[in-house]
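Dear U.,

For the methods section draft, I wanted the exact inputs and outputs in one place so we can describe them consistently. I've listed the two proteins in the order they'll appear in the manuscript figures. Please don't edit the token lines directly; just add comments below if something needs changing.

First protein:
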Amino acid sequence: MFCYELKKVLSKVSSRIALVVLLTALLIVSFLAITSVSYTKSDGSSVSGTSAADSLRQEKEKWTGYITEDVLRQVITENTAVNQSPEYQSDNVTDNNIAYSRKQGFSDIRELINMAFSGFQDYDYYRVDSVTADEVGELYGKRVENLREWLYSDEISDTFTESEKQYLIQEYEKMDTPLYYTYADGWKALLEYAPTLIMLTVLVTGFLVSGIFPGEFSLKADSVYFSSRYGRNRGVRAKIAAGFCLQTALYWTTMLLYTGIVLFSLGAEGGECAVQTWLGGWKSFYNITLFQDYALTLIGGYAGELFILSLSMLISAKTRSAVLASALPFIVLFVPSILSSVNVLSKLLGLLPDQLLQISTVINTFNLYQIGGIVMGAVPLLFVLYPVLFVLMLPGTYFVYSKAEIK
């Protein structure tokens, strides 16, 4: 019966088209991730993709190691030397690109200096140009200092409680310093584009599983199905199992292929670097590595998919409508985006299931929750809340469909 349910889903022309759409999405997102890595040659011209990654790796690996005060001083010295070159001071764009090509090896460390010395809410690409070698050693201290000043500023004085402010400061202070650095652009590209592919996978899979329960009703075969010996027990379990296996197989096949394609093209080095070693994660209060960030992104996406699509299947079993079921993933994903500008809803929005599909983004946000005097970020709550709801939902789906009345 399980194989029969899978065959019913996959034999439809619309389902095959949906799978082609998912494969196309996989290839397009992988291409965007790979070509997001660019390299400027010594003549000022630029390339992107695999060849760019190879050249960029050679430059960045020269700076592999811990970002100590000596390394930071060296970055200031190298940056100043490039700034004093005729190419940098020229009004010609090609000359400027030539000058930039000499900064690519330490560009990530340069950005960390910009972030630390620009202030918490500000960013100035040229801030490093005015930081002295004596000042730059304060980089890690500036990160904590900037956070503290921002938390106690009039601008957000009522946004966080005192306990939440102290929690953030303590987490910032827990970051292991000096940070370890090496080429890690493969992991950064993965993290940047993974949420997009996860959402597309959920939407396509949602379309596929939405018809599992309403199928007999749409074919007017419900009277035969529910009057059969196993229709209300094994048949229902087979439908639930088919939906679960289809979700699992499509999700992990898609995401593992994406991971393999991108890391094979851009390189898998740097997974051990802290998330704070790149511009997107500098402010994160989660002290984890890029590899751990991506692992949480994959697991979170899977947990989110199971909940959203299981809820979709429950709705289809109750309403007997594939249209309503297939529309649910769109509602779950896009309604929070519309409401995101309403500040009073920020706490609630931070715990909606769509957040699980973009954990790499959540890790870089300040969504905090206080339970019984314990302050924590949104990530651990999301990883507990929705797997529990998913497990509780399965018996509900079984009960609703097995008790369906024949009309």
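Second protein (the one for the lower panel):
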Amino acid sequence: MKTIIAAYSRDLGGSRLTLRSALQSICAAATPPQEHLRSCMQLLVIVQWIFTFLLMGLVFLMIFTYLFFTYLWLISAAYLSWLLLDWETPEAGGRRSEWVRNWSIWKHFRDYFPIQLVKTHNLPPGRNYIIGSHPHGILCIGAFCNFVTESTGFSQKFPGIRPHLATLAGNFRMPILREYMMSGGLCPVNQKAIGYTLSQKGRGNAVVIVIGGAAESLSCQPGVTKLILSRRRGFVRLALEYGADLVPSFSFGETDLYQQVQFSEGSILRLAQNKFQKLFGFAPCFFYGRGFTAPDSKGFIPYSRPITTVVGEPVTVPQIKDPSPEIVDLYHNMYKCSLLKLFHEHKTKYGLGENADLQIL
């Protein structure tokens, strides 16, 4: 309105032509250019993704609980019956949907940061694989985009390989969320689910495990590359038991997406975080990113910073049903060396300095 008045007042006569011109200029200014529309779409996709994975399960749990006490109780009863019959499906291969993995919204998700997937070696489809994903970051955004969607072209880069990102088993106990997660190829990060994928679904499967887990997210800060790996040997034992090759991957830029409030070691709040993580499998991080309306405000949306996920050279692993601790340590060290090689070969290409180092705890 102020702009209309200003434009109108330039002509003392206040003719109809002047007023019409002012209104036309306002309409032209109000119509966002194509780039602005694209940015808005990217932002909306990011917001829906965050709310989906953080709140969808709880929201539908409350909805079904509420419906039980209304005349629509049959809806909740029917879904509960289905849930009980389908309880084991997430650990028995899930229900992968290529249609969901190829949704066009994932391209907007990819372009917001942007995210890219870099292939360094072939993964022959005649083998199965365990891909170690590093670092965890706050929300594993790089791992999700590259291994749960086709927006970065995983199937084109690694033909014949079906990725299955492993995540907390508790997510698959939440109504509706479990269906959504299975459709993208996610599976519970436990021995039963991983063992089924590597032994009962033929060849060409790649289980993606974020090795550092929730504990690693507590040290997530921009510019910090600290991994929890030295004490994590379960994934190596699984690889030996099922004869799956070990493949390191590193998402450069993953830790730059959020700022986190850090508590000093030994403080009550840090001890509480560690205790919570041991009990429930995830850590309550206190983090923030950009706001919804302005990039320079604080909010829950990740910063728009590039992520490059580099998939490294596979470590060939034999099948040993009951590997000794010495054999597990041997292949754990081989995997660690392959990961360090990948990091140092690519760090300067994707935003890190020549002197950047990888801290492995």
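Candidate sentences for the figure legend, describing the second protein: The chain has one domain: 36-360. The first strand starts at residue 115 and ends at 119.

Thanks,
Y.
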